[in-house]
Amino acid sequence: MSNPNSASISQLVWLGLGAVGAFFLLMLVLNWASASTSGEQSLGSVDYASNSITLALEQEPPQLDSSRSTDSVSGIILGHVMEGLLRVDGNNKLVPGVAERWEITSTGAKFWLRDNARWSDGSQVTAHDFIFAWQTVINPVTASQYAFFLYPLKNAEAINSRGMAMDQLGARALDDLTIELEFENPISYFDKLLAFSTYFPIKESFFNSTRGRYGSDADTMLYNGPFVITQWVHSAQLRAKKNPHYWDKDSIGLDAINWSYITADTTAKLNLFKDNRIAMVQLDAETLESALYNKWNIKQFADGTIFYIEFNHRDGRLTTNYHLRRAMQLVSNSSELVYKVIKLPGNLPGMSLFPSWQMGENKLFQLEYPTPEHRVDIDEAKRHLEIARQELGLSSFPPLVMLSSDSPTARKQSEYYQNVFKRTLGLEIKIDQQIFKQRLAKMLAGEFDVVMGGWGPDYEDPLTFADLFASWNIQNRGRYNNPALDKQVRIAQGSLNQAERMRAFGAIQDILYHDSVVIPNYERGRIYVVDPRVKGLVRRITGADPDFSRAYLVDKDSNISKGDSKVAAN
Amino acid sequence: MRAYLLKRIVQGIITVWFIASATFVAMHNVPGDPLMDEKATTEEIRKNLMQKYGLDKSLFEQYIIYLKNMSQGDFGISFTQQNRQVNDIIREHFPVSAALGILAITFAAFGGILWGALTALYRNRLPDIVIMFLVILGVSVPSFVFAALGQLSIVSVNNLVGFSLIPVAGWGTIWHMLVPSMVLGMSTMAYLTRLMRSSMLEVVNTDYIRTAKSKGLPATQIFLQHQLRNAVLPVITVLGPAIAAITTGGFVVEMVFAIPGLGRYFVEAVQQLDYTVIMGTTVFYGAFLVFMVIIVDVIYGFIDPRVRVG
Amino acid sequence: MTENSYRAQAGDFNPIIADHRIQGISRPSLSYWQDAWLRLKANARAMVSLYIVIALLFFTIAGPYIWTVDPAFQDLDQVSQPPNIDRKATLIKPYPIWDGSTGTVDVKDSETLYLAQAANTESVRLLWHVMPGAEGYRLYRNIFPFEQGQSMGLPLFTTFSPQNRLFEDLLDLTPRTFYYTLVALNATGQETSEVVNIAVEVQRVLTIEQAVSKGLVDSAEEVDVGDVVYLKLHPMGTDYLGRDMLARLMYGARISLFIGIFAPLIFVSFGVLYGSTAGFMGGKIDQVLMRFSDFVVALPFLLFMILFKIAFGIGPGESGVMPMLIAMVVLSWPSTARLVRGQILQIREEGYIAASRLLGAKSRYLIMRHMIPNTMGVILVTITFAVPSAIFTEAFLSFIGMGVAPPTPSWGSMCFEGIKTMLTHPHELIFPALLISITVLAFNLLGDGLRDALDAKMRSRE
Fold first, then answer.
1. Which of the pair, B233 or A518, is modelled with greater confidence?
2. How far apart are CA A470 and CA A515, in angstroms?
3. B49 near A CB under 8 A
4. How far B153 CA sits from the closest chain C CA (Å)?
5. Does the pLDDT value for residue A309 go beyond 80?
């Protein structure tokens, strides 16, 4: 058979052509059969005909029920389709949302709602919708993980966890358009909470009609924000169009936003952007260089999340020893970590628990209360280590356990620190890398010596960071217990005097450094590129980020290529 | 025949029960807690959640409830997507994985048979050597490398032609299916090409080909009706296991190409320790595979008279 | 003495001296294994594969003794470096922290943006004069020369204070030319058209102290400022933490090949034991054992691999190799068990077994003399083919983030890390992927060769 006859070959060619045809036919059939999961034909990153943009989402939003949602992806979508009493504008200022005006005192607050706010079914957004939403959040049956956001309201905590009757809640609708609130304790940052998704309204009659499926599909939700979701194909895409009933619809520049791709794979997203399929892509250290070679306009934004190393202060742990912690603190060099290992511009070396953008009383907090100066000093560190060894009565140090997450950056970070402690102090570190939920369980149970932690602000007040190491805070994974720190936290929580509060935050910053409670690693910066034809993107530290709700397209004829635009909206 | 079928089905059901129990045991030995979240929850909120998912009951009770619900085809509510039924998740995402799998296996089978036949015809000459070299690459390169290269080549092709000829990622049109299914079917195709080639060479030396030749049948007829047809048989017999491997092996392709299939869902659920989704998906896939094998066995009986079921 | 009158003599009754030439076999007698070996030797592809496998084992076992670089050592001066790059570094004096003073370079009034000191890999210190109308500044760094209307590169620094006119760049400095662009910002923080730029040649430098602590020179006395030293050699480049790729590939081979070879060895041995017990015992025991293996076969492999992997968990400092190995063994043995059982059942019916029994052979003898040697070929082939799939499974698990824990390297996890930078640093993907491919290929071809050589029934045509 070594001499093939031409007849056989031509037969094979025909068979091959037939196979190709059959393959395509099969594709058509299967495409039709799995149609429920495939949306409409996807558009380009910017589509002038429909005045819309296309984007990618990091993951499928677990649910869009604002009373239960906790994750950032749901936060992005909710920020586009819902509106609370107040909202945060493009300059990070609180502006009126559903509430037209408001009044906050030390004991309570009062809100007057605008009469032209509408749900997407045309009905009015009333005070009752807010009260119902908040009651749902703190109702123990809902089991909302963010119920604590409402704890500033009088009796909210008691209702949520101690079974007090719902009618005791310190929130009442005086009439259809007026809400009156009573606080549990004086609180100085309450207005900043109101733009958060847990405070969004829910219409009671609609909620009940969904029979427990509220927020699980496009048609089991009612919207009062700039956009409404028209199609939600799970794990595949989410489409939203402009809400014709939205009270401020004239300031909305896009007719539709399509989140057409759901993937966490940065390479895939980079390829999609390169192919003009999505209008924005976030870059990481790996994809950054490709962006540079493609000459895209790279932008940066500090998202406010702080990463740090925490110690375990539970009895029996070596890390309860101050000198050991001090030694580890003295050898860590966050500048080397950021500039040589993480290598993303926009990430800043961590200096303090409070991020660099944090405002103090009048100017930046770090200008008012400078961070204690930190110098790497290996000899001094070795001296402390020796004291620690003697105090602990050890002949040599056993390996310390470092708990870490499985994200690529955390992996780099923990391998880097393992090497640093080994190289400088001769300390053996065992990395304990766990998937998300297992890491959380181990953190809560205290099964670690040091843990790579991080914290993104919930609201824009230094308190969101300052109370992390209060002895009663459940986020205090290492069970750090220092009455001096607790005292300052209580001052910051209870006082309405900004100067006094800032002094307390300054004191907390000092305690955290001098008692070696945390080793700050870095302040996260985000590096991203946006299609230059899209303007008006807002990046923000809390709430929906990135926010395209007030974005618009530049004129079609201005003919901008990806490298052209010079204007940085941020 | 009917008795045989009945016996196989009963066996299948017991196997599914075994899979379900193994999944349950494995799942409940996993350290960690699906109810944890980045922001720690208070004891009270936790208790409320435990009650909602029935995690406050004894393990044995949970097992009984689990089996009972499963026998009624109810896999429960997802932990991460608290308003969604696992059944809905499977119903929405399995067709995607299945479509991808079917296309991949078709691609692999067509490709394998054609290339295999071609290499056999050109034995030890240039086309044979080239194709066999590619086949060797096909079986020895990890799938994720193929997937990444596949996506990269789409981008290059699109850049070359100046517009989006083929979508880079996502799902929706037939063009979205093309490259992922080819990537997924690649290694199976390579394997089938080898199998087809040796099968062809074996058939050449059989008596019935010799007889056909000596009868003076036209070469075309011999090739198509005798040689190709008989050589394909062993290839078909390995398709059954290959279907199973491809349908569950689509994780990587689904992740790289952002395809909303069940495989990607499973990996994400594992990261989140979403008990109900993990158990539901595993049992569903297990049952699917068990009954696929039964169906394939029965179909062989019809195709190949030498393997009569009985 | 005629022919008819033969008379027997005493000598006639002596036994004939055995002539070995008659019974002798003209060719040397070959045992089964010798025969197989001859056949294998004739198969060029299989032999080449065998040599590759031996070379791989040598690379894995002896490699780390020859290339004694510590795979955990982080050379942060050479992060993600491809092989064969310039390793020259100039020694400098200790580097003081910059307080913003102008340093050694004269202030040039002619240039708006200028360097405070010669740029080097430790830092690039930039100063600038007031730009007209600037209420703030943003500094970019690019790898391409400035071009009007094109991207200016990475935004390094933004300030809204016009007094703030200096910046120290520390970010990932490599010896090459960088193009810095300074843009003036207006009162609302928007970029204006006021742009200045500068091209900066970055020199690789080390302080003497660093050179000593990195072990590049023996003592500080030996060298002087301005001397040239050579950074550590990395023949295959470095990874994302500046670790030596070659050393990591060698240690990664230990993990990958450990899983790839030991898992098949263990599950095949267990399968052989299980299958031969079932096959030899027969009857009810056979039924029960085989039914159980049917159950295990039905478990979806990859799903249960992942499930078992997280159920076993990985403790602190553990690599996670053992859980992976155990999961693989637990899920993979039944196919071998079935195969061996089939073989045993077949052999049991062979004529030579019946003959052996008639001659009074005991079970033990039958198993040792006939059953095992006759199934050995099949078993060896099964192991060889199981190696590639075990290696692939490890790589796959690493790819979806369920692989070995850091800092343990494995080829799969190295691929996983390398795949993201396959365009910019291809060497981080190519080397581990190539090793996986070569190993898989070698074992596949060796398996083919062994099958042809050992098992007449399974012999393929090609």
1. A518
2. 14
3. yes
4. 12
5. yes
Q: Find, in chain B, the residue whose alpha carbon is nearest to that of C306.
A: B270
Distance from CA of C117 to the nearest CA of A (A): 19
Q: Looking at residue C171, which CATH number applies to its domain?
A: 2.60.40.10
> Higher confidence at residue B1 or residue B157?
B157
Residue B166 lies in a domain: yes
CATH code for the domain in which residue A191 is found = 3.90.76.10
Residue A563 has pLDDT above 50, yes or no: no
**Contacting residues of A for B34, CB less than 8 Å apart:** 437
Which residues lie below 8 Å from residue C224, measured CB to CB, with a gap of 6+? C91
- B180 CA to chain C: closest CA distance, Å? 17
Q: If 0-12 CB within 10 Å is exposed, 13-18 middle and 19+ buried, where does residue B174 land?
A: middle
Select from C183, C207, C231 the last residue of a domain: C207
Do C155 and A345 count as a contact with CB atoms less than 8 A apart?
Answer: yes
Q: How far apart are CA B4 and CA A294, in angstroms?
A: 64
> Which range of residues forms the domain containing residue B102?
87-273
Inter-chain residue contact C302 with B249, CB threshold 8 Å: yes
Task: Give every CB contact of residue B99 below 8 A, 6+ residues apart in sequence.
Answer: A30, A31, A33, A34, B177
- For an interface test with C, which of A267, A335, A340 has the most C Cβ atoms less than 10 Å from its Cβ? A340
Weakest-pLDDT range from A233-237, A515-519, C172-176, C315-319: C315-319
Q: Does one domain contain both A150 and A40?
A: no
- Domain coverage including residue C321: 47-70+241-461
Residue C286, in any domain of the structure: yes
Assess B116–C contact: CB distance below 8 Å, yes or no: no
SS3 A36: helix
Residues of A in contact with C149 (CB under 8 A): 563-564, 566
Q: What is the ipTM of this complex?
A: 0.82
Is there a contact between B171 and A437 if contact means CB atoms under 8 Å apart?
Answer: no
Asked whether the beta carbons of residue C298 and residue B290 sit closer than 8 angstroms, the reply is: yes
* d(CA B126, nearest CA chain A) in Å: 11
* Contact call for C461 and B198, based on CB within 8 A: yes
In a domain, A72, yes or no: no
Q: In terms of pTM, does the model score above 0.90? A: no
CB atoms C415 and B144 under 8 Å? yes
Q: End-to-end alpha-carbon separation of chain A, Å?
A: 71
Please identify among residues 116-145 of chain A the ones whose CB lies closer than 8 Å to any CB of chain C.
none
Final residue of a structural domain among C161, C183, C207: C207
pLDDT tens readout for residues A28-58: 887 777 665 555 556 788 888 889 999 999 8
Q: Which residues of C touch A414 (CB under 8 A)?
A: 406
Same structural domain, A160 and A269: no
Lowest mean per-residue pLDDT among A313-322, C17-26, C252-261: C17-26
Is the preceding omega at residue C407 within 30 degrees of 0, hence cis? yes
Q: Is the dihedral of CA A233, A237, A242, A248 positive or negative?
A: positive
Interchain contact, B152 vs C422, CB within 8 Å: yes
Long-range CB pairs of C243-247, under 8 A, 24+ apart, other chains included: C243/C71, C243/C72, C243/C73, C243/C74, C243/C75, C244/C69, C244/C70, C244/C71, C244/C73, C244/C75, C245/C427, C245/C428, C245/C431, C246/C67, C246/C69, C247/C64, C247/C67, C247/C69, C247/C70, C247/C71
Task: Verify that A164 and A236 share a domain, yes or no.
Answer: no
Instruction: Tell me the two tokens of residue B250.
Output: 């689509």
Inter-chain residue contact A271 with B255, CB threshold 8 Å: no
Query: Mind telling me how many Å the CA of A429 is from chain C's nearest CA?
Result: 8
Report chain C residues whose CB lies below 8 A from the CB of B148.
Answer: 419, 422
pLDDT digits (tens, 9 = 90+) for B250-290: 888 888 888 888 888 888 888 788 888 888 988 888 888 88
Does C385 reach chain B within 8 Å, measured CB to CB?
Answer: no
Q: Which residue has the tokens 């043995």?
A: C333
